[in-house]
User: Fold this.
Amino acid sequence: MSSLSTQSKVANWDVSGAAGALYRRGSLVRGVAALLFAVLWVVPLLWTIATAFRDPRDPVSSGLISTAPPSLASFATAWNSAPFPTYYVNTVIIVGGILIVQLVTITLAGYAFGRLQFPGKSVLFALFLLQMMLPASALIVPNYETIRALNLIDTRLAIMLPAFVSGFGTFLMTQTFRALPREFEEAARIDGANSWQVLRHVYFALSRPAIVAFGVVSVCYHWNDFLWPLIVTNTPASRPLTVGLATFTQSSESGQDWQLIMAGTLLTTFPLLIGFFAFQRRFISSFIQSGLR
Amino acid sequence: MRDSLTVNSSAVPPPVARRGRISWSAYLYLLPSLVFMVAFSLWPALEAAYQSLFRLNLLNPDHSFIGLGNYIALASQPLFWQVLRNTFVFSLGTMPISVALALVFALLLNRRLPLIGLYRTAIFYPAVLPMISAAAIWSFLYVPSYGLIDRFLTSFGGAQINWLGDASTALLAVIVTTIWKQAGYYMIFFLAGLQGISAEVLEAAELDGANLFESLRSITLPLLMPTTVFVTTVSLIASVQAVDQVYLMTQGGPDNSTNTFLYFLFQTAFTNWDTGQAAALTVILLLALFLMSWLNYRSLDRFTHYE
Assistant:
């Protein structure tokens, strides 16, 4: 395997003659262009980091580069002037709660669509398709009425409820379960497993890659969600990080102090960023799957 | 042979018969999903259509049936048309450029290159950020005088510009932020599409004397057509729902120059508390989204045979 890839590498680099020259020249242009775009794309994040870690006694308005050593003062001030700990707890509960319920609903629905025969199957499947064309952000008005009627305004449950069903997750599970050999289920049944055990120990346990892909996409999506949590919450007690950051940015606590705002932005973002930088391949392949439905 | 067959069929029913068997328990498995789907997707869509026919304003106790009155009231507001125009400009500004950039990035970062992994990370990471964080970061970049963009431009002798405070530049500034946030996300679909094109076909074309642009035009781009259609639709659907960046960066201003569809709907519902008109806007948005998804499926059907 490794010798094969080395061989093709060598073969590729050894392109001779006009085509080789073209390829090498092309790759130089390509390298320069890629470098330029990458730098352009990374500068906003680097500038955010530099500003957040800058000593507040040498404010960002005084000059581009600070001569003072980096400082955590802006993070401390931001952390203490807005209820960031509460926002963190809320975000983790909301994102985790959504994922757990989704895993149950999509596993059950995926099993029904992927393995069972029943009247009205194609109509129900079409309903899931239709649901994917009705995005939650377009339904904020009627859903707000529902949440108000349920007396759930300003609760974390209100933020979670509309996300408990996932069309994407259902399709992913349907495809994954369909591809599993029936023999696994048959063997488990012969061993006396009931339906719940078959779902849990055969289907769910053997679909780890799909479940991880779904989990990554679901966590990112709901960690970043803003409009719906903004609408159904009134107090920090139920607000997630995104709403907290927006409130903080526009409030007097931040006083339009950009060093505080950039520190708050990093506080809101860094768990996802660290996760992404650590598990890049996993993230990217999960995101690709979320598109190919 | 015969023996094993009989043993087999006595232990478990043969696959054919089992596959045809109706499992009534399927409805039980679908129940949790269906409950939430009906409660928070299907029923609300119908509810919005119904409510859009009534006068439902917090300030007005009269909740009578007014037919298409809410739609007519919207159409008679100049602001509604400005919002449509803004949304159109926003879509036209974000969609083609994001998709084109994503394609360029994918072409640049498809074949082996020193530091390629680092470049891919650098382009893709904004997709993982919350839009609200991206908006905060860019609001700071746009700050007059000591924002990075103004510093850069004035160092070349450019004039100072209040990007987000000027009605002629604010929408452009929001568009640029959106492109930066999503181009890397679309890139990964083109990268996946490019993986499916065999190197031999491209090498054969190269041997036949095709230059880079010829093989791009007659091989790579046609084979990427399904990906392009998909990414374009996703981008279009995202652009009519853009709202987080507007909320944080401009609040729709100045002078409603960045007031786009979903932000206008949000204002109508939760600032003016005109539920009737907000329901009418919901119906318009749902119809538009539905049309886009349908066009996507149709064109995907048309183009898939290339794959």
About this structure: The two ends of chain A are 32 Å apart (CA to CA).
